[in-house]
Amino acid sequence: MDKYWLKSYPADVPAEIDPTQYRSLKEFVEKNCARYAGRDAYVMMDRAMSYGELDRQSAAFAAWLQQKAGARPGTRIAIMLPNVLQYPVAMFGALRAGLTVVNVNPLYTPHELEHQINDSGATIIVVLENFAHVVAQALPRMQLESVIVTSVGEMLDGVKGMIVDLVVRHVRRKVPRWRIPGALGFGRLLAEGRRLALQPVTVGPEDVAFLQYTGGTTGVSKGATLTHRNMVANVLQGKAWFGSKMPDHATYVIALPLYHIFSLTANALMFMELGARGILIMDPRDFKGFVATLAKYPPNLFMGVNTLFNALLHTPGFEKLDHRNLFGTVGGGMAVQAAVAEKWQAATGCVLSQGWGLTETSPIATMNPIGAGKFNGSIGLPVPSTEISIRDDAGAALPVGTIGEICVRGPQVMRGYWNRPEETAEVMLPDGWLRTGDVGRMDEAGFTYIEDRKKDMILVSGFNVYPNEVEGVAVTHPGVLEAAAVAQPDERASEVVALFVVRKDPALTEAALISFMRASLTGYKVPKHVYFRESLPKSNVGKIIRRELRDELKK
What we know:
- There is one protein chain.
- The chain is of the alpha/beta class.
- It has three domains: about 1-15 and about 230-455, Rossmann fold; about 25-205, Rossmann fold (3-Layer(aba) Sandwich); about 460-555, GMP Synthetase, Chain A, domain 3, CATH 3.30.300.30.
- The protein contains 16 helices and 26 strands.
- The strands form six sheets. Strands 2-1-11-10-12-13-14-15-16 form a nine-stranded mixed beta sheet.
- Helix 4 packs across helix 5 (about 130-140) and helix 11 packs across helix 12.
């Protein structure tokens, strides 16, 4: 096809990348840890971990997995951690042993965790003790063989780590009680692994690196099968877009959770290729502490979501920060609002560039040029070795400027959904095209604009919420007859979940239903608003028409 968008490419960005540069993420990690051994890889609470230490620690974890846990290439390991130093050690260690990583949101309920573990077939889990009670509750219904537990302070320096854990456990009381017979300590496990030799394994480009869970284009959470080739390609695509502009020994902010595909690829992986230093923000909602960290470690590049940028702009002290080192800010995961982008540029002198992608594209598919001009409202140009095509419902390509479904083709597009061939067939067109479910148009310069979402997904602060899942929980309440979940516009989160309900029990209240649903859903999936109705709009075959409910909330 005619890649006419290349005429709009920055002069230093190549049209293609070579995804065979690394055979696997195993090779990628090992080469880059050796290349940048003396540089800081991560900093958490002023505790720096060099690439050399990351190499040694991840090798110890990999060796333990091989020789003590009995893990083999292809074994699935779940990682249920926030942004702590243990995450890159566990994730890179698992990849070096040839395992497949299953990222788990630490805020999941037992019900959500159970589904993801059982669907993926994970037999090992690494979890922060703050969330171990969730594992304990779901454990009888899962087939886990090893549970590895760690604490916030475990990889911090000596006394400081002990003090942090004391505060977390007893002063702030953030560690609920839990009991898991045979649970293993992460630190002790690493010590044991350091006495073991890492055995060689063969990991190829088509082996599965991640089962990254998403709702896809329907509501059932499913694993996007991302191969080593998918992930390596997307890292090199990101490097091609950013790399020539990055200063040596660059510093970047890791505020988005590493278990999220955007942060996983754009932060943990892409910046390893550049030898950069990542500043781990464990709790980005502590905006006062966040601003203090930014003052101590001024970043060169900052990736985040619209709500994060907006919150920082309204945090006292942010206006006093020195932003001279900041050459690039990238917004993804959700739509960047023009008002926020304008305020960000005015406050920092740096353009907030919008990018776009999906879990199914590893995730980067399009990006705006970095550090030039001003916010343009588009999701950018296709990144190198990537094609965008606007298509109709039958899958036929539409002329430039016509609105249709955005389809993507490139080496970063997933193999398919884990063990779900029928659902894979629904989104994959012949010749490798992925139907994204997003509706948009491409202009004559090659910039793509999202106009609407074909799917009913709700986007809460960058996280996907699928109506089927929310509705499935709501209708288990004995007082609910019917339910429909839709997106409601929100100034802070872009969208929140609104639930329309037909009651069986007239006494059912909004507060009671929300309280009931909190037991089964992560916080951002819980309805923010509940609207009771005598009936819900339906099609002639009885299907609830969510579109009419969404439109009602926009009035």
